[in-house]
Amino acid sequence: MEIIEGAGAWTRPGDDATDWNEQLRRPDLSVGTYCIPAGGKDTQSPHTEDEIYVVTAGRATITTPDRSAEVGPGAVIFVPAGEEHRFTDITEDLALLVVFGPAYGSRG
């Protein structure tokens, strides 16, 4: 067993508009925290891995080519590998617990 300290906790990004911090990495999954400040821009590209987001703080809209939805604390979002997606209209500092399967970037 392992306790993943800080996973999903808001931390103010540095000079970049967003901040990704991977807290656990195994071949079949990785866990990290993605933070975007209120009014910030989400510049991510589609990933080669399936992904689950859990909103731990903040409010925003998640947009894919087929759908948009407002999300806030407690929302759980599944994004399949390769699907374009982006958080927009970030009205409150957004903190996301992110789980990738397999591990982020492993399908390069």
UniProtKB/TrEMBL annotation:
Annotated ranges, domain Cupin type-2: 34-100
Pfam family, one: Cupin_2
Record's protein name: Cupin domain-containing protein
Organism expressing this protein natively: Streptomyces xanthii
